[in-house]
Each structure stands twice: as C-alpha cells, then as structure tokens.
Amino acid sequence: MLPRQSVLDESVWGKSRGLDPELPPYPLARHLLDAAAMALHLWDVYLSANQKKRIADGMDLAGELNRARALVGLCAGLHDIGKLSGFQFCSRRAVQFLNRNLAADSGRMSTGRAGHDVAGMTAAAEVLKVLGFEDDDEMSATARVAEIIGGHHGRFHHLENGVGPAFLGGAAWAGQRAAHAMAVHEALGAPAAPGSFKAPAAVLVTGVVILADWLVSQEGYLRQRQRTLEPSLSAHFRRSQADAVTLLWDAGLAPVELARKDFAEAYGIVGEPNPLQQSVMDELPAAAGFGGRGGIMVVTAAPGDGKSETALEAERILSKIFGTHGYAFLLPTMATSDQMHDRVTRTLLNQSGEGAGLTLVHSMAWLSSAYADDDLDGDAVLTCDGDEAPAGRRRREADMRPGRWLRGSNRPLLAQFAVGTIDQALMAVLPVRHNALRMLALSNKTFIADEAHAYDPYMQVLLGRLLNWLGFYGVPVVLLSATLPGSVSDRLIKEYLQGAGHKSKALKPRTFPAPYPGWLYVDGETGSSTPMSQARQTEQARTRNMRLRVDVERVVDGGKGASDRIAVIKRLLTPVATEYGGTALVVCNTVGDAQETYLQLREEIDPRRHGDGGDVQLLHARFPGHVREERTAEVTAGLGPIGPRPARRIVVATQVVEQSLDLDADIVISDLAPLSLLMQRAGRCWRHENHWLRHGFPDGRARPGWADGPRLVVLDPLAGGGRMPVQWGEVYSEHLLRKTSRKLAEIEGGGIAIPEDVQSLVEAVHGDSEDYDWDVPGSREAKAWAEHKGKETAERSMAALRSVRRARQVAELHDLHDLEGEEDEWELSTRLGADSVRVLCVYTQEDGRLTLDAEGEQPLPEATKDGRMPAPSVRQVMRRTIPVRAEWFRDGDPVTFSPPSSWAEHPMLGDLRVLRQPLHRGKAQAVKVGDKTIFLDQDLGLVRT
C-alpha cells in the first residue's frame, strides 16, 4: 500500500547545528533541492564526457544522457530522506520548531539511535514506489538507489541491516517522506525509473551525491540561505541552480581550459622535444583512435629521459580523445610528490592555467608550504554525519572529513589537476570510507602513475585492482618507469583490459612487451597494442646513449682495514675532498648508516654541519617535516640542472633520492641494493651531461678532471661470500641482493650500456623465474629464495583479501565495505610495513614547560576553551612530526608518550606519539623507549640506538 501523500511540511528540518540560533532551522525540503541542483551542475560541468557515458550505460540509458542526468539529480535530492525519522529529535533546539502533529510521535521514535543514512536506505523502496519505481527483484534500480542513499556518508550498508519501523514513524511521517520526494521529483521533470542500475555506475553516482551534499552544506552558504528563504520551492530551486555555479568555482573544482603552448614553452625547457616525446606527439593520436573505451600506455626510458613531460604530452592527447578533465599525477613518496607539484604548477602557469584547481595530495600535504593557513580554516561543512551520536571524538571526526576533501589534503583528487602519492589513489580500492568519492575523482581525469617499478607486490595488486576499475570506466592510463619488469607490466595491462570487458581466458596467453626506451599503447576497446615506431626508438637510444662504468667494492660493515665500508667511501671521495672538488652522491640503505657515514665524512672532509653550509650534506626521511622540506630544496638546488653548482658537494642520503628528484652528481656511490634500484640511483650520475654539452654547464663550470665518465660504485658486502648486514634485513630481500651481486660480478669492468642493457638486466634479476637450487636445498641462497617467494606470495594474498572486488564482480554496493572495521581514510596504510605513527619531539624545560624548541621560545599549542585547535597551530605541530614504525613504541609506556590532554579528542593530534626530551644544561637528553633510546639531533635528525 502506497503512503498517503501529505502537504509538504517545512517545519521538518535538514540543518540546524552551526546555523543562526535566532532563526528556524534550515528546512529539509530546501536542502534536498539544493543538493539536486548541485548534482545537475556537477553533471553539466564537473563530470567528464566519459563519466556521463558510463553512468548512462550503467542505467541502460545509452544515448539518453538527459534522462540519466535527471536521475543523478534525483539520487542527490533524496539523499537525506532518512531525516524524516527519529533523527528529527536529536536536536533539542530544532525539534521545538517541528509541527505538533509530527512531534507527537517523539516518544516512540526516539527510543533508539540510528543513522539517517541507514534510515533513508530502509525507507527508499516505499518512497520510490510513489515515484513510479518498481521493486521487482533484489537488485532493481530501486534497491540500487536505496544503496546510494545509505552510502551518502561514505560507507555502504547491507540492505537487510536497516532500521526498525518505530524509528521511521507512522503514517504522517510516511506521508511527509512521499511529499518531500515528490517535490524533488517534480523539480527534476519527473524522470522515469531506469531499467537497470549497474553497481560500478552507482559508485560514480554516489560520489556525485556526496560531493553535491558537501558543497551545499557549507556553513556560510546555509546561513545566507537561512536568512533569505524564497517564497516557494520552485523559486528556491531556481536560485539553487544559479548558486551552484559559484559554489563549484569557489571550491576550485570548475574545470579550466588550458591555452596549449608548444613543447618548450609549455614545460619551460630549452630546446626541442626528444625523440621519445616527439613520437608521442606524432604517433599516439592514431594509436588511440577516436575515443572508445580508454586505453593504457606504458612509457619506459632511463632516468633523465624526460618521462614526466612525455606523460603530460600523452595526457594532452588522451584527454582530448576520451573527454577527461585534467590528470592525476601520482608518485611513490611524499618527497617526490612535493617536487612534481612544483613542476606541474609551473607547467600550468605556462599554459594560462592560473585558475585551474591544483594542490598537493598525500597524508601530510596540507602541511606543505603550497598551502596557506587560510586554505585550511574555511567554512565548516555541516553534514549531520554523527549528529545522532553524542558530542565527542566521533562527531569531530565526522566534521573534519568534508574539510579534508574540499580544502585539505584530499582536495586535489577532486580538482582538475592532482599531484600526490599513489596511496591516495589506491584507497579507492580498499574498504575505506569515501572510496566511492575517490573513484569519482580518479575516473574524471587521465591517470598517470610514475615510478611504476617502485611498488612492492602488495601495492602492485592494489594498483592492478584500481586499473581494473579504471578500465571499466574507460579512463586513459599512463604508466612510467625506468626499470619495470615485463611480467609486472603484463599483469597491470591485463587487469586494465579485464575491467574494459576482455575475458581473462583470452588474455592469458598474450604478452605486451614495451620497447626500451619507448612506449606501448593498448586500446581498451579492442585490446590491440601499438608500440613506438622502430625509427624513433633507435633515435631515442642514440640521443641518450651512455656507458656507465660500474665498479664493485667488497666491503665489511664495521670491519677494520682497507675493506671497512667507511674507509672505502673515504678513499673513493679523495678526489672530491681535495682541491679538485666536484659533486658526489652517497646512497645508504638505512637511516642509521646514512647518519654514521655523514658523521665520518664530516670529520674527514669538512667539520661544518649541513645547516652551517658544510660541503657534506645529509638527507633522509627522519627529519621533522619542515626540515626535510628545506633540505630537499637545498640538495636539489645544489645538484639540480640549473645551478649555481657548488665547487664541492657530497650528499649522503637514503632511498629518498632514488625517485623523481632531478639530481646530477659526478660520481654515485651506493650500498648494494636490488638491481632495478641501483639503476635508479645511477640515473643521478651525469644525468644532464648531454643537455649541458649542448647548452652550457651551469655557471660555465665543467666537471672536474677526475670525472672522465659516469661512474657507479657499488659497496657489496656479499661479494666473495660475505654476509648481509643485519640492519638491511628490514629493507631489501636477501634473495634479490644476492642475484644482484652475482649479476654485478658478471659485468664489472665492462660497464652497462644505457639504454641498451637496462631492460635485460632488470629482467635477469626481477623477472619471473624459479631460481631455486634443488641440488643444494639447505644453502643460504635457497633459504633466501624461499623467504623471498613466501613474503611475495603473502603480500599478494593479503592485498587480494583486503581490496574490493573487481568492477565487474561487484553485485551489491556494500561489497565495497564488506570487511570488518570502520576505516577512515587517514587510518589505513596502503603499504605493508609502512611507517604508521608520527612522533613529535618536544623539550621539557627545567621549569617543567613543554616547548617545540630547545630554547623554550615556542610553547606547545593548547586547544581553546571550546576544544578547538586553530589550523595554524595544528600545522605548527604536524610540520614537526616524523613518520616512524609503530613497533618503535610497542614496548614503551603509552601514557609516557601520549599527547597533551587537550589534544586527545583531535583526530590528528590525538594519535601522535610525543617524545618529551628533558634538557640538561641546555642540551636535549635521549629518551628510553623499550630497549632503545631515541632523541632528535638538529644535524642528524631522529637518532635511534
């Protein structure tokens, strides 16, 4: 039996908390119309042509885009229909304005607590029947819309886990739900129900609904509308449609058309595009065709070959063909993301992209100097998520979520141009809150993943799962790598093609070899592949041709005599340390090794500290955030392509310099590492030689006389039967290190031809193989192989278990959250064994005060009386934090390292570990944590002994 439609009652409130208490709350009907109007504008302006087509196809409305548009608006307009329930009684102030007839049910409806998202999901079938939807099977369009309503706070629910009838109220409440739904339906032109509604399309629609809701729920906008309500709902809807334009633009989410310039002007480089880049400009348009179901492109070339600019040229072509808006440029680390953000900013400005949405996206992005404090302190977004719960941490967490997306660390995913860490994208295929919104953001643009070789098996599986979804949506993808094994490339391409609709059985025997150097484009619709032309491959190889001298030094860690690791490094650096000068990069495998190496070289070469302008510099990941940002800029300036180039500079670093940092050293000295990573480190040796030979060396200073060619020196403790240093076990697979050591022994003295030898060397060490020595099953190498394979299998299995299903396997939307736990985005890591806590080092002054500095001039910020922490104070604290492994504090007393009590309820500050370093005669003392001691040294960073 259909509910009897009542006259719409505007005493039913939609928003109350945070609004003018002297006025009635904001009516629910008005908010629903606001959201519907914004969803229509998002369809018109924000969604790409590709997304609209996938949504329409998913509704069985191919070619009927206007009808699909109206249905998306309807989903947004019904998102809060569950507030017509016991939710109305969760605000004492707001309920005072409720119609007496409706308020009469308060006793029965207030007996339990439930989320209005779940209440809306439960009531949806009855409401949609009034609008002409048929609920004829389990996964009808009705059930799908119910799932979308239930998921509008970022988490999908099982349809059977709804609320009880008492919470929904009696006939009067059912009548109001029908009246509110009819008002929205009529404003949208009374769209008819779709014949079907596939799950992947519904995921995108959910993203639209969430974004529309947030944009029209900003406190300043609601207060303005609350003060000046239009006399009728139709007039209100017209104004909401007009306001949507400004709201989207002010959020920085309206796409901007770039003024495409020629290659040199667009990227701010000197000279013409290289053959790799020119081939993309000339050959990719024909390979990509006229825009079917997307495609995936793999670009392989040596470090320094301009892969980033190649990818951006590919994006320009693919976005035009497939109708995507901008791009997401994703990298392995925060440091590389920060560097790429600067480059993309310059590129956009060169193409008149001043108004384009671009910020930085990683877990600590909002702490970057790319953000101003006023970017972080905008209007609150009043979502009512958590309003049913008492005030406290849950409500504060709910209040922070939209701000992170509209103004904070996640905004670039929604913006037209996104630069950040791959983790932020991979969370789209993990069962975390708002994964649907991530999927909307990523499917809106061309997807570029740099350093595709840098991901462990766990992350490779997650990346493959994401590519499967992007393949379904027809999103163009570009993967970049200098050292990507063919087996990994094949798996990623096949995942994409399966998403696009190709059967795994047909794909199984196929391979997709990418030329090196060069590119391969695989069409999503047909599965056909097009490589870079042979002529251009040859031309590119000649342009970048270089013979890398590789020397292997057998070392003993902590040994004595000539083979001692530090003694070998000092000997190798003798030419740099003398009057000849020059630049050297020393890459260590652990932070502890880097700190010790730096101290020894300082003592030998230049006693001045890094911060005092010393010739020896130190860079690793365990500096406070603001210090690391400064040091990265200093190192990049000294060894970068422009100069001024120092007469003498030795940089001691860890893996942070392997990827995307544009450095050029006269010699690279490296601890033994897996071969693909050694090639990355070698890519920082003579990186700009060809460019400087053509256009001049910085400041006219050529390389020193001792540097007669690019040279990589590998410090190998395994050579000659040695053992791996104990501390390396946490960093690299012993099996890969032993394979690398053997391969280096084969080529030592002969050197490596770049680019000709690179791919074969990578395949020899990292390609699929069964290197078990069955003749010596108990050998150290056999044990290392078994450990390596076991760990790899476990990581792949773990990723497969944790990730959401492939796009075509999702039947119900709760499949996207069908794992235990209520994960928020900032609570989950996409890397196994990743640093998982952040430590703040503070100083306990002799009078007991806690300060951020040893001098005692910066007291620890405290929350205000109302419990709020201003954004500048949060930034001041978080910029000083350091990521470390959670196990560091496992054996420590939790109370000893807990944050101040006024921070306890803050969703970010409340999770910090605070290292309170006592001062003795002005010097910070180490703190005992378990069986180790930890202290922050201003020159060395965080030291753990």
Structural account:
This protein is an alpha/beta fold and 945 residues long. Helices cover 41% and strands 13% of the residues. The protein contains 36 helices and 25 strands. It has an eight-stranded mixed beta sheet with strand order 5-6-4-7-8-3-9-10, sandwiched between helices. Helix 30 (625-639) links the parallel strand 13 and strand 14 (648-653). The termini are far apart. The model is unreliable at 371-377 and 393-403 (pLDDT under 50).
The quaternary organization reads as: single chain
- Main sheet summary: 8 strands, mixed
Secondary structure tally, helices: 36
Q: C-alpha Rg, in Å?
A: 30 Å
Mean pLDDT: 87
Low-confidence segments: 371-377, 393-403
Distance between the termini: 73 Å
Give the strand order, joined by hyphens, for the main sheet: 5-6-4-7-8-3-9-10
Q: Structural class of the helix and strand makeup?
A: alpha/beta
Strand content: 5-15%
Fraction of residues in H or I helices: 40-55%
Using the alpha-carbon principal axes, give the shape. globular
In total, how many beta strands? 25
Give the arrangement of secondary structure elements.
Layout: E1 13-15, E2 26-27, H1 28-46, H2 49-58, H3 65-77, H4 92-95, H5 100-103, H6 106-109, H7 116-130, H8 141-150, H9 165-168, H10 171-187, H11 199-215, H12 219-227, H13 233-250, H14 263-267, H15 275-288, E3 295-300, H16 307-322, E4 327-331, H17 334-350, E5 358-361, H18 373-376, H19 393-406, H20 411-414, E6 417-421, H21 422-426, H22 435-442, E7 446-449, H23 457-473, E8 477-481, H24 486-500, H25 504-507, E9 518-523, E10 529-531, H26 534-543, E11 546-554, H27 565-572, H28 574-577, E12 582-587, H29 591-605, E13 616-619, H30 625-639, E14 648-653, E15 667-671, H31 675-682, H32 689-695, E16 711-716, H33 734-747, E17 752-754, H34 758-766, H35 780-802, E18 837-844, E19 850-851, H36 871-878, E20 881-884, E21 913-920, E22 923-924, E23 927-929, E24 932-937, E25 941-944
Parallel strand pairs: 3-8, 4-6, 4-7, 5-6, 7-8, 11-16, 12-14, 12-15, 13-14, 15-16, 18-21
Antiparallel strand pairs: 1-2, 3-9, 9-10, 11-17, 18-19, 18-20, 21-22, 23-24, 24-25
Helix pairs in contact: 1-3, 1-10, 1-11, 1-13, 2-3, 2-11, 3-11, 7-8, 7-10, 8-11, 11-22, 15-16, 23-24, 23-35, 33-34, 33-35
